Amino acid sequence: MGLLISTQAFAKQEKMVEDGEEFTAEISKTDINRIKLYGDRIRTVQSNEGELVVTRDDKLGEMYIRVTSFMENRPLNLFIVTEQNFTYKALLYPKAIPAEQIIIRNDAVVASSDAEVAKVTKNSYETQIIALFKAMRLKRKLDGYTIKQERHYIDLGDIGMRRVSTYKGQNFIGEIFVLKNSTSRIIPLEEKMFFKNGVRAIKIEKENLLPDETTEIFVVS
Question: What does the alpha-carbon distance between residue 24 and residue 79 come to, in Å, rounded to a whole number?
Fold first, then answer.
C-alpha cells in the first residue's frame, strides 16, 4: 500500500505507509536518490550486498542511495527501520529518470510528532490531501465535503473498475474506486497507471492484485 502525491513544485514522490508494510517507488538508475521520513528519522538500513550504495546523513536522519551499474534494470529490495521503531519495506524500480526524492509518511508518526505538524499550516496543500485520504479510507464524513454514493462502471479490460463514492469540496474532489482482477494471473498496480490531467494524488490499497481479488483505489483531483 502506498500513496503518491504529485507536485510539480517539489518534484518528489510521497508514500503513505504503515508499520511493516511494503511500498513501491521509481528511482533514478544513474543519479543519487534521497529517502526521507516525515516526523521520524532513519535508524538502520538493510539491502542486498552490492545492489545499492547507501550514504546515511545521521544529522538529518535521512539517506541517499545510488544503484550499482549491474543492478540498473532489476527491482531492488530495501528495509528501513526508524528511530520510532517502525519498519518499512521498499521495492525500488530503477528507471532512466533524474534523481528522485522519496518522502515516507506514517499516520502514527504524524499523530505523535507535534513539532513536525506545527511546521505545516492547517490549510496547506499536503495536509488537506492527507485529511481527505484518511476520511475516504475510513468512510467518514469530512468538514467542507459533500459525499455522494454511486455505481459508475469503467471498462479497463482485465480489471473491473467502478466508482462507488465521491467526496466534493471547495479545493479538491476525492473518488473511491473498487477494482477487481477478472483474470487468472496476478496484476501489478502502480499509481501512475491511474494518473490523468487534474489528478493530484493516488492511493492504492493492494499493489499486487490476485485472481478474483478486489482492492480500493483513492483518487484526489
Answer: 12
Residue 130 DSSP label = H
For cell 502502480, the residue is 190
Burial status of residue 123 (CB atoms within 10 A of its CB: 0-12, 13-18, 19 or more): exposed
Let me know the angle formed at the C-alpha of 196 by 191 and 201, rounded to the nearest 5 degrees: 50
36 neighbors 103 (Cβ within 8 angstroms): yes
The closest alpha carbon to 198, from 164, 175, 165, belongs to 175
Q: What is the pLDDT of residues 163-207, one digit of tens each?
A: 899 999 888 899 999 988 888 888 888 877 777 777 888 888 888
Q: Count of alpha carbons within 13 Å of 115, Cβ hemisphere only?
A: 3
**Domain 125-220 grouped into CATH 2.60.40:** yes
* Exposed/middle/buried for residue 30 (C-beta within 10 Å: 0-12, 13-18, 19+): middle
Q: pTM of the predicted model, to two decimals?
A: 0.52
Q: How far is 132 from 126, CA to CA, in rounded Å?
A: 10
Let me know if domain 2-119 sits in CATH 2.60.40. Answer: yes
pLDDT for the residue numbered 7? 42
- Domain layout of the chain by residue ranges: 2-119, 125-220
